[in-house]
Amino acid sequence: xxxxxxxxxxxxxxxxxxxxxxxxxxxxxxxxxxxxxxxxxxxxxxxxxxxxxxxxxxxxxxxxxxxxxxxxxxxxxxxxxxxxxxxxxxxxxxxxxxxxxxxxxxxxxxxxxxxxxxxxxxxxxxxxxxxxxxxxxxxxxxxxxxxxxxxxxxxxxxxxxxxxxxxxxxxxxxxxxxxxxxxxxxxxxxxxxxxxxxxxxxxxxxxxxxxxxxxxxxxxxxxxxxxxxxxxxxxxxx
Length: 238
Known about the structure:
Blueprint: E1 19-20, H1 21-29, H2 35-42, E2 45-46, H3 49-62, H4 69-79, H5 83-87, E3 94-95, E4 100-105, E5 115-120, H6 123-134, E6 144-146, E7 149-150, H7 153-164, H8 176-188, H9 193-200, H10 205-211, H11 220-232
Parallel strand pairs: 1-2
Antiparallel strand pairs: 3-4, 4-5, 6-7
């Protein structure tokens, strides 16, 4: 018999939906939360478009020494790319004529070593990368400090914290907040879920549920229909 036969496993806890910074800070201000609970809430934070812009301005103005940092922040915020995907990105992945960037992913298909997806380049992203490549060290790596020397995962994580240390954005929990913000803002703008999935790559149903509530009017529509029906037929019970 299977060694796990008869065992009863405890139920897991689903992750909360993504929320704005204001929503999360209001919950924290109510008091009574542990440090672990506060950390968990902040890991569910997404930034509005205005907040994303403010973060990018903060990084641009404060981090002139590490030239790769601002391009990396814009890369994450305007494509939803994972940290690992940005670190393996190559210069030739950018097609400025077509206005798209190809992202090299490893999580979408476990049977392949590498798969690819394309994301349109926003005007800010395109201009930022043009300027970065003009001052770029020689080599194929999109993000590096010296020719051919990749930025490690550990350094990227550390530089994220340093870039925002002492600012109002120091509560952000790493590069993932920009990926989550990208998806959440796409949802708020009403972009089709399938398009968001294509841009983000390998989006699970659990992840979709965390920002599905952000789609415009998706909960108002049944009530709108019901209200209209009552106007046409007053006998409908309330």
